[in-house]
Records
---
Amino acid sequence: MTDQALRFLRFLTILPFISIISQNLSAQETPVREDKFYSVSGFGFAFPIGETRDYLGPKFSTSIGGLLALGRSNFFLYPKASLHAYVFDEITPDKGYTTVIKDSRATTYLASMAIGYRKTSGRLGYYGFLGGGGGLILSPRVKLDALNQIATLNNKVNGMSIIETGGGIDYGLGFTLIFFEASYMRGFGKIQDKVFQSIPITFGMKTNLSKVFYKLVK
């Protein structure tokens, strides 16, 4: 991930919060959105950064979630479940193992809850969010039985809490929003004695389910 891409990500993240400040300085009233709940689904790539690149490489990612407006404001709740796959190159074998594994796959199963702020201009919207959560990161390892010529492959389960901040833009097409989103994710734990950090890049759709959702709530 280049320095230019990181600067763009930071811009996406702080842009909506700059809008909050400008909104308070403006005498004009912000229009209230009629759409209150969206289902969210996306796909893309997760790019490890920092020392995480020593043992992980980018592969693919998917996510599902929801976007729930808070009252009559532009703030929203953003629950999300993410599956990120990475190329895994083990640096040192775990205790009890003598062989490192290369060019394999590590997978994350993470759930998070974020609060965000979204502004619109016509069909175009932009937003930022901050939240946290946790889940599991599965990394493979292999044990060799040289005597019987058997290799046994299993997964090491790494439990980890995370913090995530990001932003995105979307474009309305009827009851659907097409969106692009980028975020920074940091784990409060280590894999291969190194901190877990990643930048997921996601494309996808948000479907307006406001009428169905509020009928179910009532």
Note: The chain has two helices and eight strands.
---
Amino acid sequence: MIREHRAGFAVLGIRLAYQEPFGFLDGERLTATTTSSLLRQRNLMKSTTHISADGRPLAVVTLLCRALAVDAARAMAATPRALPPSVTDHYQPDEIDDQATFTDELTPLLAHLAATAPALVQSSYHRLIDRQVCEAADQWFFVDVTGLIGSSREHLIDTLADKQPLLREGLRRRISHLEFRLRRPLFLHDRTTIDTTLHQDGTRLVFAHRINGDDGHLHGEAVEILDARP
């Protein structure tokens, strides 16, 4: 993409929904089928991956990316810009919808939790963005966001489980749904605070996360929804 088309992508958000548990010894191989479409004047790319094993649906992963123009001659500098025809010409007409945009399910979910399932406990987890969670351009790497929010969840459990025994379920139950949206980048040696809250939504336990920078801005939001039973 960068060498031939001078284009790239910045990940804006991920949604991971598990369909059923699948352990290491439950099958010999996984099959992943991915489709891709272009949205909003070809400035956004949405990809959906269905993961299965022997015909059993296991998970669905939805990825939203912002298209970038990459200037390889200027230290890989990237500017938000619609994808060039050299890329979009590979898409079929029904894979391009210039009027559509990404359906944001995270914001309504967070609003629902705030209205119907107030936080039971809350804690703040402080983290320096060091090189091991950065990509080559010294910006935080989206893959490591799941590790950051997982560390914040375990920090909440470790510090407040004696006051709220329900927190221990956060170590016993499987994650059935994980979603995050990145609002602003974080760079090498930035300091971040992840505010994590526990909610009980019916039989589900939900951990909600707000990723804040020391610049006072919100950099990301995430939710982890745990199975109703261990």
Note: The chain is about 15% helix and 45% strand.
---
Amino acid sequence: MTEPDAVTVADTVRWLHEEGLSRLAGLSDQVPGVIAAYTIDVAAGTVTAYPAAGSAGSAGVLAYAADDLPFPDGSTRRLVVVGVTTTNSVLVVDLATTLALTINSDRPESPARSWVLQLLLNPEITITTNSAEVALEAGNRCRHTFIPGGGGTIVSVDDTRPPVTTITLNSSADGPDHLDVEIDRSGEMYLGTRCWTLDEVMTVDDNVWAALAAQLEESIA
């Protein structure tokens, strides 16, 4: 990826976290069916919405100009930026549209941390995990605890709009919804029969995570 492309992608991701995710959440309230994912074309600004399997219009896709999205209503729901596709679009997934999703990787904690940080930008969300490597000192909003029946490393996401989304790291029972991440941070995102090939998956490595955790502990102390 060239340096100009990297800057443009960074600008797109910044826009998403500042207002874009909220505008996508507003769009989901206006269209028929359930939208499972979005891509934002970095060069053109075109937003493509992908209906969830079994919902209205699930066989097709919907396209919008970013400027035509609804005014942000404040909530980003359970939307997370997953990464950058091979067609230079930013992929956003709505975790509220899946009950169970798996992250498969040599270090699945790294992409899971990225999702946790993004989700905590929404004050409606609480996260529960049995992994000390994914939890943060964020009061009751991100709790590290024992989860009965948890057969592996689990991250549960709740925004008071049931049902809860359960993310499992390296699950042996890989379902139709999963993110596969390679060592070079490329990967593939599967939602049912849809698949997006990613040049780069958003991750948070150990050094950055440790520094962030230390800052949070200092602010709480």
Note: The chain is about 25% helix and 30% strand.
